[in-house]
Each structure stands twice: as structure tokens, then as C-alpha cells.
Amino acid sequence: MLIQLDRTKPLAFQIQRHLERLIRQEHLAPGVKLPATRELARDLGVNRATVAVAYERLVAEGLARAHVGQGTFVAPERRAGPRTVSPEPPLSMDWSGLFSKASNAIAADARRRQFLSQAGCATRGVISFADGMPDASLFPTEAFRQVLNRVVKREGPALLQYSPVSGYPPLRRFLAAYLLRQGVEARPEEILIVNGSQQGFDLITRTLLDPGDFVAIEQPTYPQAMQTFRSLGAQLLPVPMGPEGLSLDHLERLLERHAPKLLYCQPNAHNPTGLTLDAATRGDLLALASRHRLPIVEDGFDHGLYYDDPPAAPLAAGDRRGLVIFIGTFSKVLFPGLRLGWIVAPRPLLERLEAAKQLSDIHTSPLIQAAIFHFCQGRFLDRHLARLRDEYGRRRKLLLSALERHLPRSVRWTIPHGGFTLFCWLPEGVDAGALLQRALERGVAFTPGSVFYADGEGAHSLRLSFSSVSVSRVEEGVRRLGEVIREALRRPPRRVEVDRAAVPLV
Amino acid sequence: MLIQLDRTKPLAFQIQRHLERLIRQEHLAPGVKLPATRELARDLGVNRATVAVAYERLVAEGLARAHVGQGTFVAPERRAGPRTVSPEPPLSMDWSGLFSKASNAIAADARRRQFLSQAGCATRGVISFADGMPDASLFPTEAFRQVLNRVVKREGPALLQYSPVSGYPPLRRFLAAYLLRQGVEARPEEILIVNGSQQGFDLITRTLLDPGDFVAIEQPTYPQAMQTFRSLGAQLLPVPMGPEGLSLDHLERLLERHAPKLLYCQPNAHNPTGLTLDAATRGDLLALASRHRLPIVEDGFDHGLYYDDPPAAPLAAGDRRGLVIFIGTFSKVLFPGLRLGWIVAPRPLLERLEAAKQLSDIHTSPLIQAAIFHFCQGRFLDRHLARLRDEYGRRRKLLLSALERHLPRSVRWTIPHGGFTLFCWLPEGVDAGALLQRALERGVAFTPGSVFYADGEGAHSLRLSFSSVSVSRVEEGVRRLGEVIREALRRPPRRVEVDRAAVPLV
């Protein structure tokens, strides 16, 4: 720590005032340990007792606490007296004109879709169907801890060192075999390990898209994928997706008119609708793409996380022309926090994706890759998937039957085949953004559908997620939702701006 | 697994041939477990005995091995008979015309800098001064394992769930205090956790640079930073850096002529030279940048990893105008394989970097962040740094004295103040790329200097890294190098194309 000291004036006082400022401005945050008195005295060239005096005064002021034998720490909370925050020093550098076009595009998109803090939803009493994330209470944490611990013991130094960009070889080999069980024939060298599917979108976007390129998407679709394509200036071509699925006729007309660079789709467990394409439609889609030489980015929500019947084989399984890029992730079936996913692509493209990955962050942590490999290898994954199908399946069933009981007949919704969510269409005239305000007051949350639309549509739709709502609260949540919708049908709430909408992360 | 079966023909034979092809084409890699006979029989709608027959034939052919009670596995090596690889099916999709400008820029840069596989250097007998990575044998692996294990036990589910983009709050608070010890005043909310400094370069590039923008760099400098700036079409403006450091006069002329968008520099432990800017030059650089409102990207190789005297405070410590963006990393002082680093920037910029990070990969693994936080919190880091200074310091000293003894007087080199490397200038006429060919034959490796230059210069320079060469081999390695240089001085080797040069990763 560097403190400018005036040697002609009391030193302890100067040190005290300097630290006071750092604590009040939170450069030194609550709970942080102050430097040892010996160390700071040496750094400043003062007597150790001088530092000790400064520290004692901070303790007396309630800004710090001394723990015998451990040192002095910034006080955890500062209740003593009103907190005076010094004004931030003026920034003479004005960054606003310096941002790139890509950064401005991201910011403009973000303004349109104000993110709701996760905490907002979890406030007391609110039953939230807005969180599309898996339920952490179902994580196989203890089994993973044991595998992780064993992996560090056995392969520690190698897993903590730099390693090849393409990924941990045993994991790539495992994935090749794992994909084969779904019908996808991929050699290990056609697989690139990435930090979750989001990095997959990002690398594909950077490798294939230039500003002005067209990208066909299902509509509604996953917002972060749209944002990624848009951040590099791509233009989105929405293909409508109703309760019955994707309209291939519409897609064909778009292909003829705009020749998009690629199609992004989620044939399994589509987010937000939960729909899964049947085998025949998959075949037709592939044939259409093949005729138009249209690359397809297939976002493969895990094949094993389905309800009722298993899904048809991925598009990648039927691809004989090398035009499907498959993205997979462990985020939904295991742990989103590990950020682990993969891309399958033909070698000429995969080489370019590897080069982009190398410049993005060199490689994904081999420690995490090795832990997941050993975890999956040991059959844990299969057993865990069966448990997830069971548990999420129960929540889904409850939600569907509650919707039947409590929602007006004029509301339609999808029957999800997989994933964590379903999608509802409200009667015309009921705006989901405005509805959310009332719903939150009544203690229930959802995601307004417009965030899943590229073109500002979707105002009278919403997404319900059943992954994070415990079985005991589903019924009550839907009852509240039904009440709010009925009320809105009687006297429609004033439509609010879309940018007020509260949107969760996934 | 999906196998198209013709029900009118022998089924076991068809299954056997299908699996044979998958194994020979490595869709099923050596060591991979085949599906359980019961499972495959169900998938294919055949009798279990039929699958068992197919497996037995694969075993008989030497393509698989049966382990009683465990199942059937693809054979680890296939020595029996010549391996017949079926030709790859033709790819009807031609990707070559579909790549983005950014991807083509990356590929063009990569062709100029052919990467040497790490294995290439580690071949028997070659003493390699080419690897700029830390020595894995110095990793505090066991201590880290214990911390990691404890962290999963205590905070498991929360660390495996989605979490905020900005980073694990206790780590951001720790870093604020850690940076303060170096004189940098940063609030936790001015710190963004990223996947190593490479992701820092990437996010800054995407947030601040558009095609055609100028970026001033030290020359020589870190190749992957140059490649990142170039991948988005930025033009590099090299500022020469000799044995005495950076030329500020040259920089000032560039600022006047081209008004670059930013300066990238490494004031501590500069890679490749190992030089560290003195306090006076730092002050002058900051004043110059301030006059020109030039943002500086300060790549802060860890402050604690120095030899002889500790370095002056980072540029960020003296920055009163909010124009320094500081990048830090745990890759050199702890574990590169964890991919953990951070960016410090003024809030208006940091908000944009967070948005870019969110679209890149949502967030960095909180599990790894928490483990590193607890590791550093427990004073392990300080003790470990002292050990590293000691050990790398010994290797550096040995290398410097060996250079004095074995290298011709016409070779000049830098005296590194920190980091893992030093830089040598050979006499004019000795081309380092050509020299490397002879050096490898003689059992010593280095990195040709031209890869650290933006403009094709640097042909008669080279980088020596002392981080991965054990004390016992330094002397012999330098002796061989001296011999090769002397020989080249007598009869200069024919200059080879730069793209033949062998370049390590870091």
C-alpha cells in the first residue's frame, strides 16, 4: 500500500485518514484484512507502533475490528453513525465516444431487454416461474466432489497447466461415444470443448458472420443467441413457431428471398416453448437445408432430458452433407456453474472455431473437463438423468394440470416434450409486460414472451419455467396467475414499454 | 446407437460390420465402452444374443476386448494386421467461402506463425528454452486440492449454479485489497473476473476496436495480444523497445500522426524481454497518455514475481484520469490451467466489458473463483510467490551467467527484472529462424524473435525462457546454443521462410 506521507505532520493521523477514505469508498471492502502492521510499517518507512495507533483509531471509530492473533479487518457492517460516502473523483476520461460498433449493438439490445436480478425473483412470497435454470437442490454435488478430488490427486499438475485448445482428449473421446448413442457420428477431432453453449454461439458467430449477414431463427427463441448474432451486426429472419412447431413453408420463402448465412434452431426441448421436432419434420428440414446449402446451428438441449417419449435423433445424425453444427452443454443436465459445453462440426470449420477459441481464452479449464469426464464415465450421468426426468417430469405434469384448472380457456400453451419451460399465448389485448407488474404484486412471476421475439412481437405471450419451482408451490402459483389473467381480461392493464419488462438470464 | 438393419439378412453380421466401421474410423475410440448388449438389443429391436454374437466377433478380430462383469471395450491398440482406414465420406458442403472477415484474419495470422506442438519441444534430448509457461513441478497442487475440496463441501450447489457475470464477490473484494497493496485503488465493482488475460484482451478488443483502428504496441511484444487486436481488423503501430526499454519519443510521434485508439504495454516483466519500466518512465508515459487522452491497456504480469528489486507501482496506481485498463492473471503465479484473470477499469467501460463477457460465456466458473479466493486468502499465495521468486530467480541467474560464458560477444541480451524470459539480438546476418533448424538438430530450442514483431522484423533475434528448464540443464543448453551461433557466424545458414518457424504458445 502506498500512502503519500508528509513527514512534517503527525504520521499516524495521515495513515488513519487514508485508510478511512479507502474503507468508506470500499476500496477496502467489509471483511477484508488490513495489511499486517509490520508489513505496512516497512512499506511506508515508519515505526510499527505508528501503524498500530492508526489501526486502533479505526477500531475505535467502528471502521475496523481487531481479532487477536489474526490481525485487523475492515468492519463487516458499519452501523455506527450515518455512512458518509465521499463523492467519486471526477473521471476526466470520457469513454462514451470510444466504444466499438459491436459494443454499442450489445448495449442497445440490453436496453431493450432490461435484466431482472435473480434476487428480485426470489424475494419472499413470490412464486417464480421466471428462472429457467436447473434446480441446484438436485445437483449431484457430493458425488462430483469426490470425483473432482480424485482427479486432482491423480492428474493435478497436468490439469493445472496450459493444455491444447481443442479440449481434454478423454472427454472428446467420451463425447464421440456419447453422441453415437444418439445416432451422431462424430470423430473426437470433430469436437471442440467450449465454456457452455453461449461460447459456442459466440465462436460460431465470429467465425461465420459479418455485419449485414442474415440469420434465420425460430420465433420465439432463446434471447442470448439472438443477442450474440446481433452483436456482430447480423440481421435476424424470424420463422414463426406456433403450438404445432416450426413453419417450414415460411422458412423456405425466407431462404429464397434472403439466402441467410445460417439457421439457428433447437429441435429438442426448444426454449421457450419446450417443443421437440418430430422425426418427419427433422427430415424435411434437413432436406430443405441441403437443397439450399444452408448451414444449421443445432442447439441440442440434452437428448436425455425428455418427458414421455425420447426425442428423434438430432439433425446432426441425419446430416450427410456436413452442414449441421451441433452445440451441446452440460449446463442443464449437470452444473451450469462449470460452464462446459461442446461444438461438433466438420473439420474445415472446426479448425476455424479452434483458432477463434484460442484467441478467446486459450482453452477451457482441463481440470473441469477431466472431472466431468470421470463423472460421466462412471455411469453417474445416466443415473442422474433418470432422476432428473423423474423430478422435472413431476413438476411439469403438476404445472400442466394446474394450468388446465386455473387458466381461462382463451389462454393456449405448449405441451413441453423436454427442457424446463412452456410458452403461453394470452388473448389479444392482454399485454404480458403490463400483466407482470400486477402478477408480482400478487406474488407470482413469469417471463414476458416479447424477449423471445426478434421483432418486437410477442406482447401477449409469456414463458413459464417449472425447473425451479418446488412441487408444493406450483398449484398456488398458477392459481395466482389465473386470477391476474382473469382480472386483466375484465379490465386490461395499461400497456407498458417493453424495456420495463423483467427478464431472467436463461 | 442407430443402425439401419435389413431384416432379411443376417443381423449379427450387419451389427458387427457397422461397429467395425465406427471403430476403424475412430467414432468409437480406443478404450471406449460399447453399449451394454441389453441396451443395444433394445435400441435395435433385436435379440440380445444377436448383439452378443456381433461383440464376440469384434473381440475375435482384435477390435474389442471383453472384461468380465464390466462389458466390452474398444481395443486400446490394434496391432493385429494392417489398419485399414476407410476413406472419409466426401463433404459436399464447401465451407471455405463462408468464413467471416475476422476468421480469415485469424487464419492469415496463424499461417504466418505456425505453432509448434508442445510435444515437439519435449522430445528426448532437446533442452527447450522455448516454453514460456510456468513449471508444473512447482505448482502447489496438494494445498490447492485441499482448498478446492473444502470449498465444494461448504458452498457446492451455489458454486455449481449460474452466477453473476462480474465474478464471485469475495474474490473481487480480495483483489481490491490485493491491488491496493500495489498502490492501485480499485473498488470491487471496478473489477471483472475473466478467463485469464487472453479473455481480457479479447473483451477489450471487442469493446473498443473497430476495423481500421490503430493500436500502439511495444515491439517486440506478446504475440497473442497482437493477434487478438488484428483479428478485428485493427492496425498495429509498433514502438521500438531495445535493451534499455520503450522509446517514448517514438510513441509521441505516433500519437501525433495516427491518434491510436489505445496503447498495449507490459510495464512489468515484459514478454519477451523480461524488462520492467522504472518509476520515472512510468510517470512520463502516463503524462504523455494523459495529454493525448490515450487509453492504456496495462498487462500486469504479477507484481510479486520479480528478481532483485520489486517493480515500481503499476501505471494504474498513478492514473488520475481513468485511462488505464489493468489486466491481471493467476496464470503465471498459480495455475494457467484454471484460466483465471481479471480486468480493472472505470465503471463506464467496465459495464461494457461485462456485457461483452455475458455474451462470450455468461460468466467464469464460480467454483474456480471461490477456490482461488480461499487459497489466496489463506496466505498461501504470498508464501508461494516467495518460493517462485527464489526458484525462478536461481534459473535466471544461472542462465545469465551461462550466456556470459558461452555466447559470442556480438550477441546482446536483456537482463530480466521479472517474468520467465529474456530476449537476445544476434549479429546482423544471422537469421534466428534458420538457426533454429540447426539448434534442434544439436538438441536445443528457443523461440525465433520475429513472432514478437508486428511488422516482419526481428529476424535476427530470439527469446529464451528459463521457466521450464531445470537447473541441471541450463548450462548444457546454453553451451549448445553458443556452438550453433558460432557456427552460423562462420557460415550463415540459408534464411528460411518465417512461416517455418516453430513458436510455442505463451
Commentary on this structure:
By secondary structure, chain A is of the alpha/beta class. The first copy, chain A, folds into three domains: 11-74, Orthogonal Bundle (Arc Repressor Mutant, subunit A), CATH 1.10.10; 104-132 and 383-500, Aspartate Aminotransferase, domain 1 (Alpha-Beta Complex), CATH 3.90.1150.10; 141-378, Aspartate Aminotransferase, domain 2, CATH 3.40.640. In chain A, 43% of the residues lie in helices and 13% in strands. In chain A, the strands form four sheets. An eight-stranded mixed beta sheet of chain A has the order 4-11-10-9-8-5-6-7, with helices on both faces. In chain A, strands 12-13-16-15 form a four-stranded antiparallel beta sheet. In chain A, strands 1-2 form a two-stranded antiparallel sheet. At the A-B interface, helix 4, helix 6, helix 7, helix 8 and helix 9 of A face helix 4, helix 6, helix 7, helix 8 and helix 9 of B.
